[in-house]
Specification:
124 residues; mainly alpha; 3 helices
Amino acid sequence: MKSMHHKDDIIRKAEKKVKDKKDFAMHLGIYFVVMAFLFWINWMFSPSIWWAFFPLFGWGIGIVAHYISVYGLFGIGSTDWEQRELEKEIMILDQDRSRSDSKETLELKQKIELEDEWDEGDFV
């Protein structure tokens, strides 16, 4: 039963990722069409003042932000990146804990060995 919920969760996440990628592709396509149209209008009616660069850069910032939200920046920020980082941190913490446990075990063994060497007569 639990694996079925897990599988449904994975399918929902995959569907969301595909939809996000599709939405970004649509956004990018509209951006190029509108920018081409604005530059054509600029060139036809006011070639002395290139105002079309303003929406190009402004909307371009939005395109970059949308890209980062969908694909992440160099893989950082994506769901896959979060999962990999989480697994890495868990592994590091688990290794630190096992090292700490082995160190405590070694110290305990040394203490027991020292106690075994003492006789009751050694105490005052």
